[in-house]
Amino acid sequence: MTTISVGMLGCGTVGSGVLTLLNRGDNQISESLGVHFNIKKIAVKHPDKKRGLNITKDLSFTGEIENVINDPSIQIVIEVMGTLDQAYKAIQQAITNGKSVITANKELIALKGPQLTKLAHDYHVDLYYEASVAGGIPILRVLNESLITDQITGLTGIVNGTSNFVLSAMKTDHSSYEESLKQAQSLGYAEANPIKDIEGIDAAYKLSILSQLAFGHSINLKQLKRKGIEGVTSNDINGAEVLGLTIKPAVIARQKDHELFTLVGPVAVYKQNPLANVNGVENSVLVTSTALGTTSYSGPGAGSEPTANSVMSDLLAVTKHILLEQIGTSFNKTTDDIGESSLMNLPLTYFLTLNSFTGDEAKISPENYEFLKQVVKVNHAYFCVTKLLTKEQKNELTSALANGVTEVHFYPILK
Amino acid sequence: MTTISVGMLGCGTVGSGVLTLLNRGDNQISESLGVHFNIKKIAVKHPDKKRGLNITKDLSFTGEIENVINDPSIQIVIEVMGTLDQAYKAIQQAITNGKSVITANKELIALKGPQLTKLAHDYHVDLYYEASVAGGIPILRVLNESLITDQITGLTGIVNGTSNFVLSAMKTDHSSYEESLKQAQSLGYAEANPIKDIEGIDAAYKLSILSQLAFGHSINLKQLKRKGIEGVTSNDINGAEVLGLTIKPAVIARQKDHELFTLVGPVAVYKQNPLANVNGVENSVLVTSTALGTTSYSGPGAGSEPTANSVMSDLLAVTKHILLEQIGTSFNKTTDDIGESSLMNLPLTYFLTLNSFTGDEAKISPENYEFLKQVVKVNHAYFCVTKLLTKEQKNELTSALANGVTEVHFYPILK
């Protein structure tokens, strides 16, 4: 029996989940891998705090991160404390100390993934982060391993459970955006300050991580145009339903030649698209590739055990590498010879709504109405433009429709 | 650069796909793994036949399987010829000759999986068969690797593209079973003799393979009660639609204590279940586990490139093991201390249809009609029993409804 010494940074929801799963799976892991994990030290802010962990083993808590990352006996560091700067420093140090690292920190990987990947490569250690995207779905492993001989051309996903819960509730319960958000908060699906979720920041992080693995390209988050869900009205939701569409918070990346076209924001999805039926806090990612066509992966996007299970998968992957003396085969390397552009620069079809529309068609100029009748399904205040519109045509149409007196919302359509 | 010598048995649809992908991915594989694959020999029935392969390399065909499996320089054998007895013998011989084996042969793995796994284990070689279930979806790898620390409790899937295409077409085009099957045949989705697909034999093989990995249990296919789709009528399809249900060809396995409850046959699926939207030849598997809850995996179930891509994934997995001198870590071992029973032995809810029903309620005895009104939605000839019925109650109800003059079809309901 080989003993692998593990250190942990943080012991919140995910950390406790990891300890629970390690405790529960101890015998099975020993049997199948011949390995026993020794959780040597756990760095937390308050080491003396009483924790309600249902663990049979003694655990050693410390207030100092350095006690974990500088302990020469620790081979693997699990980072689940979830800050940016502090985690970045700690992980850099752990890697240069020769330790493999597993992290669930999406912000960190989205922003510093390529740098950390390079560092891990230079120091011949592993860096895994399956838990950073879509908690319970092994999507990174699938992108990294099973699709290695295939060429990925596009990704479309629902990767933010909070946003998806809010829009799902608005549709199912016919409630307002504010009511649905409150419900999400009371159920623990949204934080008190939900800005990262509803403004698409969290989703953008995840798109960047997915893109690192799928296209070898880390998205420039500063330049990325993203849209949150806070502008989605009940009128939009209901109008979409009338036309057989569902509004969903999406992330999209499509590669065309050497350009990656991206979108983070709400889209209108046709019923037959699998994403239309991904509801509540569920996550789903559709992958389009040359050999396979479209495959889809769905499951819980967050939660203590699903996320912890992804950390455990990483832990076992790293452990196998240690046993094989083959450390240093982390997730794909990234290469950055690819341009970036908004998906909205491509011709798209759109679902448009006129908010505060009174039903008075005179607000739309006759020419535009004639145009609309030719290319769209018109249903009172809802318009479904089923012909591809260039960015310019779309802008022209929306300003003509608004005509100074109404607000036009537009959603790219996913078939 | 390491050269790995590969032999292939068979060169039909899947085999040609493998050669195409190997040819296309050659540079990327060399770059990322430092490996070059040498396809040394391909055993086929007619080695002199002209093949329209768009491959730059010279290929060496042979009429003798022995020339491949007994060639000492060949390290990996890919079996894509798809027979049972001949493939079993050839693979056994290849394994005892110390070669790792990749197969797409579902019949073989369903029936002889545990024996071959044991043999591969004894001879310290790899045995992989990702392509045998759900062509393009890496479901076996997911079951085997990512869920290792998790406990799988249930599997529900649509794993036969032909059956799913036929039932989808019956619903969408309002065509008969016969018309839909003919359409499937003309599109190449069903064979001239489609018995293995429509009678659920192919689906049962796949359930057995999934079950070997998910529960460590190979299903006794001789005792398994399965139902095909040939009895599904337009009346059933339409009636289901009226009640918000879709009839789908399913495989189900649920573990309860030490018993595995299985079903292979058509079921009625509620709209909100992800399987309701899996249409045409697409495959999908829902996995229920302790840590994750339900995750789902969907994609093309067949086709040259998707299936070949799964073979390629296996080839790279085996190659990594060869590079690491760590051959012998094939998919999970199977253990057989688990009982088997039909899912129909558990209380279930049912969708019932009365075929050749004339609308004359008098055919149902008054007592039964009273009973029905209490537990079901009655809609002419369609009944949705939303209360759990034991097997006995279900039998009693169906024979009472039939009353000697009509045919009752019943479908377990999936929520």
**What's the CATH C level of the largest domain in chain A?**
Alpha Beta
Order of helices and strands of chain A: EHEEHEHEHEHEHHHHHEEEEHEEHEEHE
Largest sheet of chain A: 10 strands, mixed
Poorly predicted parts of chain A: none
Summarize the amount of helix of chain A as a percent range.
Answer: 25-40%
The greatest interface here is: A-B, 44 and 45 residues
Just name the CATH architecture of the largest domain in chain A: 3-Layer(aba) Sandwich
What's the mean pLDDT score of chain A? Answer: 87
Q: How would you classify the helix and strand content of chain A by structural class?
A: alpha/beta
CATH fold label of the largest domain in chain A: Rossmann fold
Described by its quaternary structure, the protein is homodimer
Description:
Chains A, B: It holds the Pfam family NAD_binding_3. Chains A, B: Residues 10-130 form the Aspartate/homoserine dehydrogenase NAD-binding domain. Chains A, B: Its EC number is 1.1.1.3. Chains A, B: It catalyses: L-homoserine + NADP(+) = L-aspartate 4-semialdehyde + NADPH + H(+). Two copies of one chain form a homodimer. In chain A, strands 7, 8, 9, 10, 11, 12, 13, 14, 15 and 16 form a ten-stranded mixed beta sheet that branches. Chain A has a six-stranded parallel beta sheet with strand order 3-2-1-4-5-6, with helices on both faces. In chain A, helix 3 (85-96) packs parallel to helix 4. The longest helix of chain A is centred in the first third of the chain and has 21 residues, at 13-33. With 415 residues, the first copy, chain A, is α/β, with parallel strands linked by helices. Chain A contains 13 helices and 16 strands.
